[in-house]
Amino acid sequence: MTVAIDRMVPAFAESLIHGNLLPAKIHSGYGLWFTAFVGVNLLQAAFIGFCPLVQILKALGFRPGEAFK
Question: Cβ(58)–Cβ(5) under 8 Å?
Answer without folding.
Answer: yes
